[in-house]
Structures are given as C-alpha cells and as structure tokens.
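I have a small job for you when you get a moment. Can you supply me with one protein entry, sequence and fold together? It will help me judge whether the discrete encoding reads sensibly. Write everything out right here, beneath this request:
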Amino acid sequence: MNRYVVFASASIILVALFYFVNFYVKLGFRVSSDVSDWAALGDYMGGLLGPLLNFITIFILVKSLVFQKNSNEELKAEIEDNKKIGRLRSFENLFFNMLEAQNNIFDDLTLDVEVGGQLTVYKNADAVAVLEENIEDLRDAVISIEEIGKYLEDIDSADKLFGMLRSFYITVRIISEKLSNKEGFDFQDRESHFLTLINFTNFSHLRLVMLMVQFLECYPSSYLKEHEEFEGVLKKVGLSMKLY
C-alpha cells in the first residue's frame, strides 16, 4: 500500500513542478500577491489532482477489502485445521484404547478344541494354530463353507471368537466414520490408521479375524468383506480375507 501513497505524493509534486516550470521558468511569470491568482491555482491543481487522488483512494480501499477477505479466509482455514487436529487427537485416544482392549481380549483367549478325538484347551496363538489346522483338514475334505461356519459356531459356545471379530469390526468402522471425508479427512488418513490397526494387531489374532470373516455369516463379517478401502489396505500388505 505504501507504493500508492508514494505515487500520490509524486503526482502532487510533479503537477506543482510542471506548473512552476511552465509559468515561472518558461513564461517568466513572477509569484503573484493577488489572492484570486492563488485561488485559481488551487482550483487548477484541485481539478487536476482530484480525480487522480479519488481513483487512488478507491483503489486502496478495494485492495484493503481484498486483503481483509484473504486474512479472514486464512483465519477460517486455521480454525478449521485446529478443529481437525482436535478431532484427530480425540479419535486417536479412542483408537489406541480400543486397540489395547482387543489385544488384551486375544491374550486371554482360550478354546476347547478337539484334536485326535480328545478335547484340549489351547490359548491365544496356539488356539489359532490348531483352529487353522482343523479348518485346513475340513477344506481338504471338501467341506462346504456353511458347514465350516457351523463348526466355528459350535466351538465358540462362549462367543469369544465372535467377540474378537466384533471388536475388530467396530475399530474398522470407527476409523471409517470418524475419519470420513465429511469430517474433513481423506483416504490417506484412513489408510494410515488401517495400517496401524493391522500392524499393531498380533498376527495370530489378525489371521483369526480373517478366518472368521471368510467362514462366518454375520453382519461384522459382511461389513468387512464389503469394505473396499480396508480390503485394499490388506492387499497392500499381502493379506486377504480369503486365506483358507
């Protein structure tokens, strides 16, 4: 804005200088003591400079309004960014608490699995390994997916397996809803947290969830099967919801 002030000042000086050179130097006029002559000079300079100064004033006013508008937009964007950061922090507190809770559930997992005609109690990773072996045997025997699902329901009388599937599904759903485009986030934000969920989940636990998704017919498994973004992230890390 300073350059416009300089331009206006220079214009006034140039007009006065032109008047001085033309009438005093070139034409040889002398400084008048007549009040009417000075009044005429004032009218002349006012008529010459008035429109120019008015234009500069309007231009500066417009520039000020544009600057204020840009400042308001930057302030609004900063406020939105702060709100987004606040929402992200709140979400991450919930997210990591849920991650810890589902890992604790897996650590406490016990299953009564029949192996060689004998019912044996297995814990967490060992339970998953034995369950996978039994599923593979059933697949080799060309047992249908529905029958394998029934087998899983039979050994999960206490709903421990379903509880872990549901916990994992809720975490995926919360990521999708809390970090949605509507909330000011994008796919990169969701992808980052899907990867965190996958990487921070015990691999045996993760395989168990994929097994449940593949063979159980329920809302959590259907939701995960139809979740294109989550499925894409699984493929990126070399996993699938059809491992068996």
